Amino acid sequence: MSPRPTFTRLPFRLSRSLMTQEAAPKLPILQLVGVRKTFNDFVAVEKIDLDVIEGEFLTIVGPSGSGKTTLLRMLAGMDQPSEGNITLHGERINEVPPNKRPTCLVFQSLALFPHKSVGDNIEFPLKVRGVDAKARKARALELMRVVRLPESYHSKNVMKCSGGERQRVALARALAYDPEVLFFDEPLSAIDYKLKKVLEKELKDLHKETGKTFIYITHSLEEAMVMSDRIGVMRAGRLVQVGTPEQIYNHPVDRFVSEFVGEVNVIEVKKEQDGAPWRGIDVPGAFHVRPPEEDAEADHAFVVIRPEYLRFLGAGDTAQNSLKGTVYNEYSLGSRIQYQVRVGEKVMLVELSRSKALPIAADRSVTVGWDAADAITVRA
């Protein structure tokens, strides 16, 4: 067996690489090549190739059982790949244990010491390293300022802190290791909605301020959209698509990705002949359709229309495509109103901003429409 690589630790301070090296080319810090993980006959992760760019905020999303947590455990060194290689700065780290890697994992449970103070929790990794008490406290107070905790909390028992404050303590402790890469295993999953929105923004700010590489695992696409530079979508152990939030939302590679990133209207269509409208399979009609981006020759596809791009057509209004239906119900979504329109056996969703909401009674006959440019076409 080849000797384990030796990693050079970052200076004992917060990294500012994104601020001081903006002109430098972005290079991969972590690379996965053909990574596969099996448990007996069960394949948890299947042949993943991925470059993680230094300093980026990468979020891996997917439904339960998609393999995202197994992938994170391999990246953090808690599990080893069955096949393939993981490299850090070009060095193979498959067998390097977690405590020998310049990385840190923030657990879903946070894993704080309940009998210790906020300061003691943050200082713990520094104490393990043999840092003297005065330097430990100075570092802890610096990190508390970074995560927006009052200095007076240094001596406060961590269990007397609120859920959001404990999240901040866990982040400060992770940064005390001065890792190059921080891994997050669904740290916001058990927090109420309002606090979650605050912490999402704080995590994004923290990422910008530190310049660290963040790899975040969640089942919430909304979290991923708010915080991430790039998003990877997993399904059945495979990484289906990796791209910016805009690419994932507006250019999904298949129906699974399009439906995973939010409510959508999907119509199955078949091309009869070149240059002619496509025939609807699950709803009657002929539709103007752009061919799928990944396969211009496809003759069977799904047309995906997001609710905000579907509109009600009144007298004199035109659209390239239209369907007649009946309003079944409406739902208030805060700043938006969503209308459920039944077209035969199919349900279509229309969303309008509250300022443009229409007083449409239930059971009223309506026509909804959209243009080909407002829809996404993916292969069947």
Task: Describe, in short, the structure shown.
The chain is 24% helix and 32% strand.
Describe what you observe in this structure.
- The protein has 380 residues and is an alpha+beta fold.
- It has 3 domains: 25-101 and 178-261, Rossmann fold (3-Layer(aba) Sandwich), CATH 3.40.50; 114-176; 262-377, Beta Barrel (OB fold (Dihydrolipoamide Acetyltransferase, E2P)).
- Helix content is 24%, strand content 32%.
- The protein has 9 helices and 20 strands.
- The strands form 4 sheets. Strands 6-7-8-3-9-10 form a 6-stranded mixed β-sheet, with helices on both faces. The chain has a 5-stranded antiparallel β-sheet with strand order 13-12-11-14-20, with no helix packed on it.
- A hairpin with a 2-residue loop joins β16 (321-333) and β17 (336-343).
